[in-house]
Amino acid sequence: MIKGIRVLILLVIFAALSEIAVLFDNSPVQCAEKPQKAARQNDVHKTDDQTDTNTDKEPPVVEITDDKRQLIGVRTVEVAVKPFQRTIRTVGRIEYDERRTATVNTKIDGWIERLYVDYTGRYVKKGEPMADIYSPELIATQREFINLVKWARGSKSYVEQNVQDSGEQDWSAANPYADMLKRDAATIVDAARQRLKLWDITDEQIKRIEESGQVIRTLTIYCPVSGYVVEKKALSGMRIMPGEKLFDLADLSSIWVMADIYEYELPVIRIGQVAEISLSYFAGKKFTSKIDYIYPVLSGERRTARVRFTVPNPAGELKPQMFTNVEIKIDLGQRLVVPEEAVIDTGTRQVVYVDKGEGNFELRLVQLGLRAEGMVEVIKGLKPKERVASSAAFLIDSEAQLKGVTPKK
Questions:
Q1: Largest CA distance in the chain
Q2: CA 48 – CA 54 distance, rounded (Å)
Q3: How many Cβ atoms are within 10 Å of 270's Cβ, its own excluded?
Q4: 88-97+251-332: CATH class
């Protein structure tokens, strides 16, 4: 009975305390304090957001102490606008000047009776006899020409005789058909003469046939240009057909040097650029020439294009198929450049570390251009007189990666 009364008293006390707590929470003082707490929490979040925003605006910087700089050997260099020159070194090959080559052939069917040039490599002067050709067709044409000449001479004699018999001073008045007959005879003879010329019979040979009235048994082929016989297909006694090649000639007083240029070097190659050409077996001797042609196609295997140089060769010391060393110096003007070792190239981006002073290095994205002689052109990302880390840049980059520093986009 006493225990039950005690439990009842405790329940009453707990109920009273709960009522008091509810009244205290709903009091004016507590209601005023709740918005103030919420405002303080909002202020804290805003401050954190502003800190994050300010952090995003600040450039990514890696701090390297003086002790570390001396330990890893960091050196800096100034970004500057400098004369930019690129030197391309490649190998060339000597070839015939195609503009100084010729082929000797004949326009008639026949047989070679005699060869004056009987071996490859011989030097032949222009106008020198090379072979005698016997051709039945040519003999028939000569006989036709001789008969026409005789007929023309007979027609002229006939006209002159009629003039003398008539006593007229004007031979055309003596015979109204005489003028037409004389013109026709001259035209037919001239046509036969032109036919012989088209078969490469010289004017001297035609004149001799006309004056002597005798057929020339063989046609002599003369050399059209001065040069070396580089290919000989003619053999004594062989039959030849019209247009068949007998000899190939090449004048070596001027030769071509063909050089291979890689496709990534082609953007800076221009016609007219000067090159120095040297040969290992002519120590100390250099030939200077200009690019006179850039071939429009690339080699599929080597990924190179050919450029051509024309080199005078009066002494004949440069011979086809010799190899040469070619050096082309190209002036690219004034460019903003940095050393290649200052750039960290990841394959997808290129970055440098700009010295901001007090041991701070800013990680910065750059856009690069041409490369030459250990320098690289900077198109975007740097300004003149800024300083960048030129050595141990990869160690600074390792430090940046450990600290989670990333470049700004």
A1: 193
A2: 10
A3: 11
A4: mainly beta
